[in-house]
Design goal:
elongated; 2 domains; 39% helix; 10% strand; two-stranded antiparallel ribbon
């Protein structure tokens, strides 16, 4: 990760990233991934995967007076299947 990050800093201003243990290293890599891959559409899959592994990441948004909360393992992570696909194939709609 340091090799990659070093190229993003002006010469002489980069401080190498260090980790105390494997868990700390993984957290730093995840944080860097979140910054570097913004707007790539990967965060949603990352959240699903991390929560399956026990990260318990909760998303909360407050819009005006409305409070929206997405809990780990929620069925709201699953996108609904378009009605046309259900009509053509007879598959069952995802539970939401």
């Amino acid at each position: 990760m340091n090799t990659l990050l070093q190229k993003r800093w002006r010469t002489g201003t980069f401080t190498p990233v260090t980790a105390a243990n494997a868990a700390d290293a993984l957290n730093k890599i995840i944080a860097e991934r979140r910054k570097e891959l913004v707007w790539r559409g990967l965060r949603w899959q990352d959240l699903k995967r991390f929560n399956k592994q026990g990260a318990n990441i909760r998303l909360q948004r407050i819009l005006g007076t409305d409070n929206y909360l997405l809990e780990p393992g929620s069925n709201k992570y699953i996108f609904p299947i378009p009605q046309e696909e259900i009509s053509l194939s007879g598959i069952i709609q995802n539970t939401r």
